[in-house]
UniProtKB/TrEMBL annotation, chain A:
PROSITE patterns: W2
Domain of life: Eukaryota
Record-annotated W2 domain positions: 660-873
Family: Belongs to the eIF-2B gamma/epsilon subunits family.
Protein known as: Translation initiation factor eIF2B subunit epsilon
GO MF annotation list: guanyl-nucleotide exchange factor activity; translation initiation factor activity; translation initiation factor binding
Native source species: Solanum verrucosum
GO (cellular component) term, any one: eukaryotic translation initiation factor 2B complex
Automatic annotation (TrEMBL), chain B:
Protein family (similarity comment): Belongs to the eIF-2B alpha/beta/delta subunits family.
Recorded coiled-coil stretches: none
GO molecular function terms attached to this record: guanyl-nucleotide exchange factor activity; translation initiation factor activity
Disordered as annotated region, ranges: 148-167
Name of the protein: Translation initiation factor eIF2B subunit beta
Gene3D superfamilies documented for this protein: Translation initiation factor eif-2b, domain 2
Organism listed in the record: Solanum verrucosum
Length: 873, 450
């Protein structure tokens, strides 16, 4: 029986070996540097990937996940604090795992993900014939490139300067070759049997160059070559937490690759809706807009910077014409897990300006339709994947881990090297050897690390406390992340903060929400650290406005407001002392050590978005207020579409208001919208036809997308609307209202207004230059204006509008009135009948209204004479 | 040695990462791991059994810590420890009988000194006897360290005895010990593999014509049990509760239908409605605790309560490797696996209600325990695999399990006892306390409930 078993085992091993030869091991690249400064000041002292996330370094989560997902080779790209990362990996035994090799790549000059990938490519990818990389089709055969005696080689891109010589050299060599076009292509070594061996290669080198002959050739054999990226690989950053299985995504990716070699990347996405109020996802990132082909899952459009959108999203018309159906999604989250083909590395090398993975690379590929590279998406449903991008996502992901969404990567499972922890009732995790006072209360969703002591009447809730911390009596800790070996003395109050290793908080000190205390900071007695401040032993890198002293003074004055727990006498002393000059060195109270980092004015506004603290209620109210205001009266920067619907009761009240004020407001709103559309057209340099279509569609429908605050510009006639409804997958289109039934006269007026405004906005010094501006602008948009001026009535409307402008909004035009009118007449935009009708209409008007008629009297006179002459003819 | 370490770490990693789950797989892999440990472990010529025991015990502690919920690990490690002691003893006894009787009496003297001198002569004799016979399962489980010490002494003393023996002899003995242990572990592995069949053999005795059987989730043991009854031309219907949130019941129902069984799938919540039509509940479990309670997939307690309410027998089928010597203190937490909430609901759809950042306070909380604890009074019957009389004798184990069931309360009481530890008198005394008993040594434990 034993023999039988052994036999079958041997068979299995042989089969395995065969398989091993056929497939390449699954590889992954971990970028152990986020290339951002979002975790400053902590990241000044320790790399982000080593920061503890629920008491285990982030990179452990990433590595543990990759290992369990079947990845066999991992390259860890270390940049900032690379030594620390390598030391950690050394110590933590990750290097010694069976079937899981971890290799580090160190670099000190990479400043972006793009740089990192370029470096990996250069170090680890065979770049045998340099030219090969830029061949149109790497799999083509020689016969296909040969026409008669000439070579017909096409390249993917133009040569760089430094490549031209190589190319010339190559062609020079090729010219002397005699090629048998009938034989099949094969690799051949020009000596002996035609098979390359290292020994022979070495001999060849020696024979050519005597210097090499003295080369200590033993080194060649002894050098450990790092493994190379050979096949599809997984690209993640070292702060990814996931438990997804890669097999499905990999299978899909490989199948697509087989059909289409241009499918270079598969992005993992996950459903997660951004908050309708703050427009940011629960991970604190901007709302993400993607256009995906629902059939093939191909990514067609990607925009993760809400700021760039300015409230609307414009899609290329080609998206609609090329695809039978597209779906626009704003409820997905990018997991930053990419399955890439080896081409991705060479693409980074070819496009050496690519820096960011998403902003440059993904968008670059999507825009570039020459090469036709395609990116696909893979949506995961039940498994978890997220990346720690900022403090808010640190907070959110910590909570997800505690709530076990990342199972089995949870504190009570020893997935790698983390200390044994037990899960108790209500989601409370406790490591062994905790000294806890009986009177202390530990609330739900709390993790306490080993060797921590907790004093009397201390309350801890929703927090993570690391190892070896000592927490005194009467301390309140709520929603905090306390790392290892932290000392918190009696009576401290901590709320929604991050406290790094080795921090000491003297008795009575308090942290307001959103505070970050970096390594080994000491907070003085009864000192109140103001909300969202960051304290570090390192000075803040120099910034433009260095009114530091002022800022520190502000901080110390903050003490007076602090609700001190300790005796008031202490507090008084404290105040006196802080006024002394020498305690001004550090702004963190008596005996405190650490610098409070300044936040720029604009930054302070946004600080709450990315902090660990929950979004304050007043901020939410303020945002709601703003969006409501927008609903009532659209502001000028183009955000004219209110996010109704999502706000529930508010939208109802809005509607009733609108109904009441419809007549009065509509024309104003409409005018602004036309103006905004036009402005956009100018900015984006679209053709007249499109603007016509668009204004038309505006005239017919104003689409309110509930909660999207997004206006998809439909570069199409309204008659296509039903078709678009089908293909855009936007249920909100059903809510479309026919709100403006404007006559084309209004359109003309509004459009003319916009054109003139554009001319006025252009820089000018004298009326003469202004006139020139007008001439050029009118020339540009003549066709458009003409489209809206089919009859005399509209033309009269335009003149009246112009008159109004000269009187009210654009007085600079008033001296030029006649000149411009004449120009418009010359350009056939306004016919003489219109001007004459306008003049006669004004006959009976008040004197004040007649200013411009009088001004243009001469012109009118001339026109009249001309027409009479014509009549005579 | 590094090989052993690598193997052990590999398995520990698999256990802790929940790559190996389920008591059958875990117990099998544990036994296989221990087999390779035994074969790779370098043993000194003297005291080899003690060294082996120490090594296996160390590994056992590591494995148990890796995933405390997999209680089968503890069972297998203990059984392997038992095998080692047993083989060591059988080697010694064969040798001592070979040598001469005076040596044996000498040995007894040594043991006497080891024990408390105040002990009565009879007790000492019993203790000595217990050495020539293998220790009980109970002693094995409860009193491991105590047993190990005299065993060591014994080995060393015998080592002293055989000083004149050549080293080759010792080496041969060590080799023989290893060989015997590995052989015994092979039998153990075979037992684990065949436990389904052995349990299924008893199916016909329990499932009768035209009965309705209810089961929850999916268990291979229960499946084989049902199929065995079907193969014996019993015609009956099976109601399968789907076993949320893993819905393994669906797979079970599919397989049952493919075997030609009439199968009805119901939701877990419909169990109470169905139970009045059901004649018997047959379920597989994760582990059987020392008090007779069982750790089973979540939802089982509800089924057991429903069965009790309608006086439907709640029958548990479990292989012997699922026995666990510990008591369920705080079973909802300590002996449970809180699994990912993603099994219950998709994360994305609820991501809005799971934000701590918003003003509403605590977010939506999803709890997904993997197991239920069913108290012993709810379990009517436990069916496990046979340890044949012959096997028992061959192994030299005299394990008597008496299942005492109250006629009135259908309470199941398991006593693991053994002649040496609890003598026959005490067993009889115990038995007379209960109104009815069945002592079946052939079938490991069985209680018949009317």
């Amino acid at each position: 029986m034993v023999g039988k078993k052994g036999g079958s085992k041997g068979m299995g091993a042989a089969e395995d070996a065969e398989e091993e030869l056929a497939r390449t091991p699954l590889q992954a690249i971990i970028l152990a540097d986020s290339f951002t400064t979002k975790f400053r000041p902590i990241t000044l002292e320790r790399p982000k990937v080593l920061l503890p996330l629920v008491n285990a370094p982030m990179i452990d989560y990433t590595l543990a996940w990759l290992e369990s997902a079947g990845v066999e080779e991992v390259f860890v790209f270390c940049c900032a604090h690379s030594k620390q990362v390598i030391d950690y990996l050394d110590k933590s035994n990750w290097f010694g795992q069976p079937n899981f090799s971890v290799t580090t790549i160190e670099s000190h000059n990479a400043i972006s993900a793009g740089d990192a990938l370029r470096l990996i490519y250069e170090q680890h990818v065979e770049d045998f014939p340099d030219m090969f990389r830029i061949a149109q089709d790497p799999n083509s055969i020689i016969a296909a490139n040969r026409e008669g005696i000439n070579w017909d080689i096409r390249f993917r891109r133009n040569m760089h300067d430094w490549e031209v010589n190589d190319l010339v050299d190559l062609f020079a060599r090729l010219q002397h070759c005699h090629i048998n076009l009938q034989a099949a292509d094969k690799l051949k070594w020009g000596h002996q049997k035609g098979v390359y061996t290292v020994k022979e290669g070495y001999q060849q080198l020696c024979s050519r160059n005597p210097v090499i002959a003295n080369w200590p050739w033993k080194l060649i054999w002894r050098t450990k070559l790092p493994p190379k990226i050979r096949g599809d690989f997984i690209l993640v950053s070292g702060d990814t937490v996931s438990n997804m299985s890669l097999s499905q995504a990999l299978k899909e990716h490989k199948e697509r690759r087989r059909k289409d070699s241009n499918a270079v990347m598969t992005m993992v996405i996950k459903q997660s809706k951004a908050s309708p109020v703050t427009r940011q996802s629960r991970l604190g990132t901007e709302e993400l807009f993607m256009v995906i082909d629902p059939e093939t899952k191909q990514l067609l459009y990607y925009e993760d910077r809400g700021d760039n959108l300015k409230g609307y999203l414009s899609l290329d018309k080609a998206l609609l014409t090329d695809n039978t159906s597209i779906s626009l999604q704003n409820d997905k989250q990018d997991c930053y897990i990419d399955i890439c083909s080896p081409e991705v590395l060479s693409l980074f090398t070819d496009n050496f300006d690519y820096q960011h993975l998403r902003h440059d690379f993904v968008k670059g590929l999507l825009v570039d339709d020459i090469m036709g590279y395609k990116i696909y998406t893979h949506e995961i449903h039940s498994s978890y994947a997220a990346r720690i991008d900022n403090y808010r996502s640190y907070h959110t992901i910590s909570k997800d881990i505690i709530q076990r969404w990342t199972y089995p990567l949870v504190p009570d499972v020893q997935f790698f090297g983390n200390s044994a922890t037990k899960l108790e009732r209500q989601g409370m995790y406790r490591a062994p050897e905790i000294k806890q006072s009986r009177s202390s209360k530990i609330g739900p969703f709390t993790v306490i690390g080993s060797g921590t002591s907790i004093g009397n009447n201390t309350e801890i809730s929703n927090s993570v406390v690391g190892e070896g911390c000592s927490i005194g009596s009467n301390v309140t800790i709520e929603g905090c992340y306390i790392w290892h070996n932290v000392t918190i003395e009696d009576g401290c109050k901590l709320k929604h903060s991050i406290v790094c290793d080795g921090v000491t908080m003297k008795s009575g000190a308090a942290l307001e929400p959103g505070v970050v205390l970096s390594f080994k900071v000491v907070i003085g007695r009864s000192f109140l650290v103001p909300a969202y401040s960051k304290v570090s032993l390192h000075q803040q890198p120099i910034r433009q406005d260095s009114d530091e002293e002022l800022e520190y003074a502000d901080n110390s004055s903050g003490i007076t407001e602090s609700p001190s727990v300790s005796g008031t006498l202490d507090l008084l002393n404290e105040e006196e002392r802080t006024e002394l000059p020498d305690s001004q060195e550090y702004g963190v109270g008596d005996g405190g050590v650490g610098f409070i980092w300044l936040v720029s004015e604009a930054g302070q506004e946004e600080e709450w978005r990315h902090s660990v603290a929950p979004i304050p209620v007043d901020k939410l109210v303020a945002i709601m207020q703003i969006s409501n205001d927008e609903a009532d009266l659209p502001n000028e920067d183009g955000a004219f579409l209110p996010p109704s619907g999502e706000l529930g009761p508010d939208s109802i009240t809005n509607d009733s208001n609108e109904d009441a004020e419809d007549i009065r407001d509509d024309s104003v709103i409409f005018e602004r919208e036309v103006e905004a559309t036009f402005q956009r057209a100018v900015e984006e340099d679209v053709t007249d036809d499109h603007v016509i279509l668009e204004v038309n569609s505006l005239r017919l429908t104003v689409n309110e997308f509930p909660g999207l605050m997004l206006f998809v510009i439909l570069w199409l006639d309204p008659k296509f609307l039903s078709a678009i409804e089908n293909c855009l997958c936007l249920p909100s289109l059903f809510y479309c209202r026919l709100s403006y039934n404007m006559a084309s006269a209004d359109c003309a007026g509004a459009l003319f207004y916009s054109v003139m405004k554009l001319a006025l906005d252009a820089p000018h010094d004298s009326p003469n230059e202004l006139y020139k501006n007008v001439v050029s602008t009118v020339r540009k948009w003549k066709k458009l204006l003409k489209y809206y001026l089919p009859s005399i009535d509209e033309e009269i409307e335009v003149i009246l509008k112009f008159e109004e402008m000269c009187l009210e909004s654009a007085r600079e035009y008033s001296p030029l009135f006649v000149q411009i009118l004449h120009h418009l007449y010359d350009q056939d935009i306004i016919q003489e009948e219109a001007i004459l009708d306008w003049a006669s209409e004004k006959e009976g008007a008040e004197e004040s209204d007649k200013i411009f008629v009088k001004q243009s009297e001469k012109f009118i006179q001339w026109l009249k004479e001309a027409s009479e002459e014509e009549d005579e003819d | 040695m590094p090989d052993i370490e690598r193997l052990v770490n590999d398995f520990v990693a698999k256990l802790s990462k929940r790559k190996v789950e389920g008591s059958q797989a875990t117990s099998r892999l544990t036994a296989e791991l221990l087999r390779s440990v035994v074969s790779l472990q370098r043993l000194p010529p003297t005291n080899s059994a003690a060294v082996l025991i120490e090594a296996v015990r160390g590994i056992g502690v590591k494995l148990a810590a890796a995933n405390p919920v997999e209680l089968a690990v503890g069972n297998i490690v203990r059984r392997v420890l038992h095998i080692i002691r047993e083989e060591d003893l059988s080697l010694l006894t064969s040798k001592t009988s070979d040598l001469d009787l005076s040596a044996a009496s000498d040995d007894e003297g040594t043991i006497d000194q080891d024990y408390d001198p105040t002990q009565s002569a009879a007790a000492a004799a019993a203790a000595a006897k217990s050495f020539l016979r293998p220790p009980s399962l109970h002693a094995l489980l409860e009193n491991m360290s105590d047993k190990a010490v005299p065993s060591n002494n014994y080995t060393s003393s015998s080592g002293g005895d055989s000083e004149e023996k050549s080293k080759a002899d010792k080496l041969a003995r060590t080799r023989k010990l290893k060989h015997d242990v590995i052989e015994a572990i092979n039998i153990l592995i075979e037992d684990i593999d065949t436990c389904h069949e052995l349990i299924a053999e008893q199916a016909v005795e329990h499932i009768h014509q035209n009965e309705v059987i209810l089961t929850l989730g999916s268990s291979r043991t229960a499946f084989e049990f049902l199929c065995a009854a079907k193969e014996k031309k019993r015609s009956f219907r099976v109601v399968v509760a789907e076993g949320a949130p893993r819905y393994q019941g669906h797979a079970l129902a599919k397989e049952l239908v493919s075997r030609g069984l009439q199968t009805i799938v119901v939701t877990d919540s419909a169990v109470f409605a169905m139970i009045s039509r059901v004649n018997m509940v047959i379920v597989g479990v994760h582990a059987v605790m020392a008090n007779g309670g069982v750790i089973a997939p979540v939802g089982m307690n509800m089924v057991a309560l429903a069965a009790q309410k309608h006086a439907v027998p709640f029958v548990v089928v479990a292989g012997i490797h699922k026995l666990c010597p510990s008591y369920p203190h705080n079973p909802e937490v300590c002996l449970n696996d809180m699994r990912s909430p993603a099994e219950l609901l998709e994360f994305g759809r609820f991501s809005n209600c799971m934000e701590f950042g918003m003003d509403s306070g605590a977010p939506l909380q999803v709890v997904n325990p993997g197991f239920d604890y069913v108290a012993p009074e709810l379990v009517s019957l436990l069916i496990t695999d046979i340890l044949d009389n012959t096997v028992l004798h061959l192994e030299g184990i005299t394990r008597h399990i008496c299942i005492v069931s109250y006629q009135t309360t259908t309470q199941l009481m398991i006593l693991i006892c053994k002649g040496g530890y609890i003598n026959e008198e005490s067993i009889l005394k115990l038995l007379t306390e209960f109104k009815q008993y069945m002592l079946i040594s052939g079938i490991f434990w069985r209680a018949v409930v009317d």
